[in-house]
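Entry 0007
Protein: cysteine-S-conjugate beta-lyase
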Amino acid sequence: MSKFNTNLVHGIPGNENKTGAVNPPIYNSTTFAYPDTESVIRWDYARSGNPTREFLEKLVAQLENGDRGFAFSSGMAAIHAALSIFSPGDHLIIGDQIYGGTFRLFNQYFKRWNIEFTAVDTRNSAAVKAAIKPNTKAIYFEPFTNPLLHVTSVRKIVEIAQQNDLLVIVDNTFLTPYLQQPLNLGADIVIHSATKYLGGHSDVIAGVVVTKSKELSDKLYFSQNAIGSVLSPEDSNLIRRGIQTLSVRLDRQLLNTQKIVAFLQKRTDIKKINYPGIPGTSEHAIAKDECKNFGAVLSFEVQNIDVVKFVNNLKLFQLAVSLGAVESLAELPAKMSHAELSDTELLACGISPNLVRLAVGIEDADDLIADLDQALKLASNS
Ligand SMILES: *Cc1c(COP(=O)(O)O)cnc(C)c1O
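Output (structure tokens):
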């Protein structure tokens, strides 16, 4: 069997291609002809299945080592479809620092359908166990959280789940299958906002789900086809193309991140850096044990720096939410990605107004560091 990087580039061998084209074709067809009324055909209608989307779905299933993959029109659509396997009366334990859109979908949408949620710090096994109720069906979390980079052990959550007959659902957006394969650690369902690293170029909104068992695959397929928020053939092809360079992009991003962290560590105007690659924390120990690397997102608190002036003066880092693409981005969580939280809520979850989050791209590290350096100088209060 080929190895990971080879699989990224070549995917699943298809027999669709009779032209010699090195890329799988984009089938822009919503419907597929029956040879005659008695025929059983593989494709009939493109919401139910499209060969271009299926190539991507098989590819992500292979990369995450799952039974089956499903591609959706956004990460949120993927999460919606995955959560739709539950029923009124079910209870889920969720990470207390999950993506804001996910929290909103759970608490403002699924709650109305009588699904209950308890948010806990999933790093704390005792808290997770204490939250289990007779109707608990699953634990849903992000192994690396945004923007504070809390790290939860997938193995520990799986252990608790298996003792209590619960499903484990992991949003693996921040790590990608290149850095962690949650199904191999015992999880049941993996979700991605493919908008981020899998796409990798800030030009497609997409989501994927990968299931571990045939039983879960059947449920997810039902959700996908019934709800219908499928990824278009064109966008499926863009995510496929993005995936081909996933590991090369990430290798550069990881190296750049390391260099930026080393630069920040030397400065007196940087108060605290949140990055699991820094030794000496439990986050580091877990990440070292369960992941291939520590990711390319970090956050830090500045001191004696006008934080707004700092980010406004960045030239190469663009001031924008999102992450995972070739270009470096900076944002102020308190004013941007987490703006809907009140000051007390921000404080409660540990997001200081002086916190800056970076999503590191593939540029030259020296240029990125020079940009941070000049903007810090301009924003200095001393
Ligand atoms: C962006 C993101 C999502 C939502 O995905 P969309 O593609 O924006 O719908 C979900 N989870 C995480 C961790 C994300 O970063």
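Curator remark: The first helix runs from residue 4 to 10. The pocket of pyridoxal-5'-phosphate is lined by residues 74-76, 99, 101-102, 142, 171, 173, 193, 195-196, 205, 207 (CB under 6 Å).
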